[in-house]
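Render this sequence as a predicted structure.
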Amino acid sequence: MPARSHPRPVVLVVSPGEETYRGYCLEQVAAAYDVVLLTATEPSWERPFIVDHAVVDLTDTAALLIGGRALAERHQLAGVLTWDERHLVPTARLARTLGLPSPSAEVMRGCRNKATSRTLFARHGVPSAASIKARTLREAGLAAMTVGYPAVLKPAASTGSIGVIRVDRPKELPAAFAFASTGASSSGQDVDVLVEEYLDGPEVSVECVTHRSVTTAIAVTRKHLGPAPYFDETGHTVDAADPLLAQVAPAATAAIKALGITDGVQHVELRLVDGRPRLIEVNARIGGDMIGHLVHLATGIDLPKAAADLACGTPPNLTPTRSGAAGIRMLYPATSGTLTARHIHQPFAARNLWLRQVRWFREIGDHLLLPPQGDQFTARAGFYIVTGSDTHQVTARLDAAAPQITVTTQDIR
């Protein structure tokens, strides 16, 4: 294909993700940039937002680099970015190979590997959790004795709370170690398991933007988790005026600095223990579960565009244009089984325009599998999003909509 001239800067997006959760990212970047795509499958929903693409095996670093170079030969690229956790390291390597702005692959590797992150947090005095790597059940037992019970077992490199489990007593350890090891094996990265101190307190994330080593905390996301001992995230709320932001922003900023991140968008997870922030992890990309969209609804700040701006070496516009709140709640079945019905009470939806979106991504006849056999990707049937003036109103509206949107399964055992 001959090289093209573009009236707008061209940005290369590596792995657009699923339309369900990441469609808004591609759409918002395409509103400001010409987008070329490096993807594992032929584009479908992405086509209205892209000007060119290459299909490669994204799990093959060499193939990814070759595909990226081919697109660079056809277009004058201004930047390269991804919001896919699995491809942060090779995307950084690709950007550096093409001479484009990017954190180093080594910095991205440190963000991806939780053991490395913990080491860097400790070195720089960032409050975190005690953490010990365990390759065997025996090592996990010794580590749990050191950090104390309850403890948390998790893959050293994974995403989406896959393989993360709390252990309250020694007899639970064998099953928990097997659960975490399975999650680690599926990560495609470090297959080790971490045994960590349990941080007892509410979980939040801080959505940050870093430009030339200066970090701006944009919003705080209050998280809602499913039943223990798992850590599946069942919902999130973002309030532009949340007073908690000022309290947690310094810890998030310190964690980003400790990891050596100089540019990009970060999703920083932490817990408040006795009211004080303790770091869980730093994700060097836009948060999942539509959090970037919630931030946009609540504040007007466009995180996907900010990510593209930073990838092109351009200062992002972080000026809020609205002050409200937004929330999302995931739709789970009561029990694992075959999805037999999914229902929205249409008069309720028509009456309440604050119910901004209801999205299904499982079809009738699909199997929904809750932990421990499944995870959030096999259990969720959909989600819904509401807006309001503040967290209190958004929470009330999430609760009001809950009985109007139902998921029914039939036991398959």
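Summary. The chain has a mean pLDDT of 93. The chain has four domains: 10-102, 130-197, 199-323, 327-413.
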